[in-house]
Amino acid sequence: MTDQQDPFIGERLKLSPFHPRQAALNLRDSWEAWNGYKFANYYYDPEFEYFCIRNTCGTYDITPMQKYRIEGPDAEAMLNRMVTRDISKLKVGRITYVCWCTDEGRVIDDGTVFRLTEDAYMLTSGSTSNAWLKMSAFGFDQVTVTDITDDFGALSVQGPTSCEVLKRMGLNGIENLKPFGFMEFPFEGATLMVSRTGFTGDLGYEMWIKAELGLKMWDALYEAGEDYGIQPYGEAATSMARLEAGFILPYVEFSESLKTVHHKHDQTPFELNLGWLVDFKKPHFNGREALLEQAKDGPEFILTKIEIEGNKPAEESFLYSDKACRNEIGYVTSAMWSPVVKSNIALAMIQTKALNGDIWAEISYRKELKPYWKVAKCTVKDKPFYTPARAKKTPPPRF
Amino acid sequence: MKKYDAIIIGAGHNGLTNGAYLAKAGLDVLVVEKNDYIGGAAVSRELEDGYWYSSCSYVCSMMRHVIHRDLDLTRHGLVLVPYLGTLAFGDNGTILTSYTAEGPNYNELKRHSAHDADAMFRLYADLERYSVLIRKTLLRTPPDPTSFKPRDIRELLFLAKTFWDLGEAELYEYIRFFTMSAAEFLDDYFENDFIKAVMATPGIIGTALGVDSPGSAYILLHHVMGDVDGNIGAWGLARGGMGAISNALAGALKEHGGEIKTDAPVDQILVKNGKACGIVLENGDELYADIVVSNLDAKRTFTKIVERKDLPPGIFERAENFKIRGSSGKVNIALSGLPKFTGVPDNRYINRGGQAFIGSMETLERAYDAWKHGTWSEDLFIESVIPSAWEPTVAPPGKHWMSNFIQYCPPQLADGPWTAEKRDAFGQTVINKIERYAPGFKDLIVHMEVRTPFEIENEIGLTEGNIFQGELTIDQLLFNRPFPGYAQYRMPIKNMYMCGSSTHPGGGVSSACGANAAREILRDLRKPNTVPEDDCYDD
Fold first, then answer.
1. Closest to A45 (Cβ–Cβ): which among B80, B84, B536?
2. Model pTM greater than 0.95?
3. Number of Cβ pairs closer than 8 Å across A and B?
4. Residues B459-491 pLDDT 10s
5. Fewer Cβ within 10 Å of end Cβ, chain B: N or C?
6. What would the DSSP string read from start to end of A117-136?
7. Is the ipTM value over 0.90, yes or no?
């Protein structure tokens, strides 16, 4: 094999700059794919890794997340035309969470916008967005959109000791960085950008480095984190932490509009409980008319946080307004037992008009292959299931 | 003079749980505590700069999820973190590692015995079957088998049905289980002595029984029936040490208007016309309440703080004879670095969780023999955890604290009372044994706290230092706990209750005793029940 070309080369996934270190720690060989990159589901034990996020600090490879540099005098206008939020208010050094829609007001994707300079932005998105960005730039002459995904390694560092680790790594002043801000630090002759962002609802940061310096950054970070419980985590732990934080996932909570076959299977921001991202006061944006129309009566369904009695996760459950399960009012999108609040939690699409009445979940589960069935009472929760105070504090506490 | 609705004696975790539920139901509640800190045996103390010892209890698996959630303990600062991997050390360099994933774990067992690796599956299935059953009884008041009250009959039927669901063959097995020794029980599964010894250790922790004593099989079950987020048998650490549990419960108590008074040792429960009506503190202060709840163990309650004349005949004697023998020691050690164990690779997961320094079945039984003779074995059993390797709040970065639980340590020595010298000699025996497995260990020691039953009794108030507030043998379990006829948390004096681990379901940081007692008190007050049902009935 040594002198032969790998016959499967075309089929193998791309490797992130952090791959060599991550592969060494992936004792369970549990890999998945994200945007063509090889990407860990988990490394050692999903629950242990989840607890690193809540207890010490974990790193999550977000290199496969798409990154676009949008630059030029028209960059602001172009982005503002595309996303539902008013980004003209975004200051240099700040970041905001956005979503963007079709003309029908259906969510295409969500992501973050970094204002790098007066005229330059970085947009991140879960899925590839080249075509949509090209279309969105149409008519704006002075803007360039560059896909910089493969040029950078991006690593999320989340958990209560994350700030201490970065401090110990030599990132002076990182403790003064506020949520949704970013700072730049010199690193090996290049620039290391660190943002106070994440997908866990906990204290955390995201590190952005030139791909060729990825391993050096990893080593410096892991050396600093040795005594602070640093550990890589994958998709499994992310999925748990984000549900406790009430964050949504594509293909789980929403169906990306451009890839959706049936016109009733995608969602508007209002349906996803992202109404706060929609700003009708700003100039025209994609989907405005349709969203205005929906804003009048409110959405028929709305994504809702619920707590369910008992300890059986309500995965794939239907919801009813009566215990006899005659009147269907919605369905669960994600569900799990929350280890940190010791509660059976879920996100669910529920008929807006049914929110004030009783909600029952029809739960099926298995014990040693044998299927069981139960109906459990649900309670609507307004706030995220877990919101540690440290996530918002600047400077954050030591652990 | 102010009169409370309820006074609870002892701010251990069950007293705080009881108080929190009574306060939540609208009662005016006071919890009095003899120490200047709360928590009883669920406590974190900074005895050396930057090192927070969980001085007594050190791991957690029985805490009822539903209470954690219902009292919003996470918001009050409680996060329970599971820890992984345990190293068990035998004689002549034998090591058994318990890995987190089934595959590696099986391979490791097979390295010792192919037969036992397979038998382990059967043991886990059997233990889980018994655990699932017994967990359903934890947050319920035991029925009185001699009563014809509808609720007692209902509860008896519940128990009967739960047991009957085991199936006929398993029902027989289960009954045997309560009277067997851990060794006899494990003989049914294993042929390798060391694997047997490793699996037998939960059967002796905290109990004055040996691996060969009838009854130790149940103790084994008691220690594996807990869970961390549904993983039965797993153990967790409280972030911030075990005191985080008590602090969170105290937070809930105070949020509902309850009060705590520390430095307030109780001299006596006041009884008037056959009814409890308050307490007298050791400083002579009298505090009044409609209800008095004792979180002290049954022996202490009825022989130390209740006047004999206030008790119906026979109760004093029952309390005197209540089996509450001390058998455990605890050595808390601050370390300047992680110990390095001979023969253990630098695996970031397994070399820092738990350690069990065992030897063999013979070692365990000999350690028990020494206890019977009023001394300790030079080769005693140590169960250790290094919590600082799992959570960052209890030691400075890069430094560690190690909890060492020791079986056995006698409450009374054959050669006279405990002295500081004898206590230190006991501590020395412990670190000598660890040093055998981790050369250089002694050089890492920054500070040490040695606790024999004598210290545990004097500081925490557990009679003889018994960690369960009374042995967990069938004569003292379920409707026999603490005494037959008094298992429903009501005591022989009117308006007096018990809420500690001397009551059902017994020892362990579960909050179940305190919650069950609160339910009974609210029932007597004809108030709506606010104590939730357990969430494990679908398991």
1. B84
2. yes
3. 73
4. 999 999 999 999 999 999 999 999 999 999 999
5. N
6. ETTEEEEEESS--HHHHHHH
7. yes
